[in-house]
Amino acid sequence: xxxGGWLEDRLRWRAADAFLRHKAVxxxxxxxxxxxxxxxxxxxxxxxxxxxxxxxxxxxxAEAAHDSIRFITSKVQFGWLVRSVHSWAANLMVFxxxxxxxxxxxxxAYRRPREVTWISGTLLLFITMTFGFTGYxxxxxxxxxxxxxxGTEIVGAVPLVGHGLLVLLRGGEDVTEATLNRFFGIxxxxxxxxxxxxxxxxxxxxxxxxxxxxxxxxxxxxxxxVPNFVLxxxxxxxxxxxxxxxxxxxxxxxxxxxxxxxxPAPAGIRPExxxxxxxxxxxxxxxxxxxxxxxxxxxxxxxxxxxxxLAVPLLEHDDRKTRARRIALALGxxxxxxxxxxxxxxxxxx
Amino acid sequence: MAKSxxxxxxxxxxxxxxxxxxxxxxxxxxPLARYLIPPKVKExxxxxxxxxxxxxxxxxxxxxxxxxSKPAILIHTGQGTYKAFTAVWCACHDxxxxxxxxxxxxxxxxxxxxxxxxxxxxxxxxxxxTA
Lengths: 350, 131
Hints:
By secondary structure, chain A is mainly alpha-helical.
């Protein structure tokens, strides 16, 4: 029997082959948003590979963590490159997850039958941010130490369950080696497991429903997924790899000073850029609004925003130009402007 | 003159793409492979360690200690002197060694044990690499 027949009997691969041959990507205005998810996927693959490599030398203890990063960047061959690529790809991935989310939002790709795809994608966005938050502490440097202290304090201000969450996250009342151990476990085991399952589900749904076609005038045109779209996406991945390597080499991610819990918090401390809009909002809210503590109010508002984001396809599900659609678009534009504005303010105001 | 085989634009483009991909794969895989090679970790700096304190060991007894990352044994001989060897009984091949000279007493090992230099400095028994 031929190899093709032998494999067909066992794997039924011809069905997948036929499926890919028929898969098509719509040609529409703003068609570039169809590439955003692929870029995010590429960066995730980079994170998995470089993350596994870093695990070969990283030591998750307060005593050894910072030295082991220094060891990687100074003693291990190409260790500086692997570490720098991991840091840069992490930041780029957060950026492209947001870009992918807003892209899907503005073309209305969350509507029936893609509601569950949207929800799984939003959960992946939250997971990505948790990846960033936990990974940031692992080099155990001064900035990371205090950013984690402030970040977990904010979690501690969540009404009712805040203090419990804080203790659960920190592995105690303070940021200590217990926190480092927890963040390490979350970062290298729990989140990768969740991501793999959710991402598999997300990609499966994308294949199941095909690419969404936004409402548009004119004839429905599309381009074949194989080979046209795949080749274009591959070109973007190669460019992405080039950008990543250039950034990692020319602007190596700093290792920082080893965390010293006795030292005062460094001046002008702020979290990673993708948390700055929330951090800045909490700083600007007055201490008391309508008898409620300002910080709590801000946290409640962001939790509500996260829920609204998850529920977008349930709140706005009509394809026609309805009032709900206009409100959704206005809210989306407001969200982009607010996040961008607050991030800029956060960096300009000391 | 024989006509040379015609190279189509398509096959030329395929060739460029193929070699480009191979080169790309090489530039990605080379650093990753080099990364996995463990860097040389420094051996014991001065080539000597403090194996024990005087009085820790009774005559005719021994103590296993770490010389760098490898185990070695310190023996207090009946005559009151100290000896240090890389091992004293090799379980893998049931080799037995003489604890005074390091010579092979029984079993398959082809060479005697490597002997360390032992000096007593104050209260410390210092073992040094001799060779």
